[in-house]
Amino acid sequence: MQFSRLLAFFFTLxxxxxxxxxxxxxxxxxxxxxxxxxxxxxxEGLQSEVVAVVDQISLLSPVAATLNDLLPLVxxxxxxxxxxxxxxxxxxxxxxxxxxxxxARQLGDLTSEIASILGGIISSVTGVLGGFTGTxxxxxxxxxxxxxxxxxxxxxEGLIPGxxxxxxxxxxxxxxxxxxxxxxGLLGILAL
Length: 192
Fold this sequence. Notes:
By secondary structure, this protein is an all-alpha fold.
């Protein structure tokens, strides 16, 4: 927990440094597709980092694993999602005008790719943690991911309208697992 707070503090400090050193929005000429490409880049980076942690979790034995084994890894996933969300929030602040002009229908291929990656992240995390449902107190630690996962989906939806609907369509088959892991906020935002 302390590591995630420390990591969040440094992400915030870094973000404010970027915000202060960035050129004013009026001086930047950014095409609509560039914004979506930047979102895609952040989401792809998150995916590769989360997959590495999911791989570590999958090495644990569901029979022998304890909360002490899982907690640092779940906290690491939470920190990674929080960092990506912060980057996406900054993108929204810096490119507010360009984002207002976005039409997700014109960006279908990239929008679908972003939704697919986000759905894949959620599926891989919940899938690997679903193997540990017999571990006492698991829903208590996995519910820590409920807020960050919901937040990143809201932020991406704010940047690229329509992504949330696509992610909900992709996750329809894991509704029971989301519920058993205590991710009710995520279920609510996805309207599942």
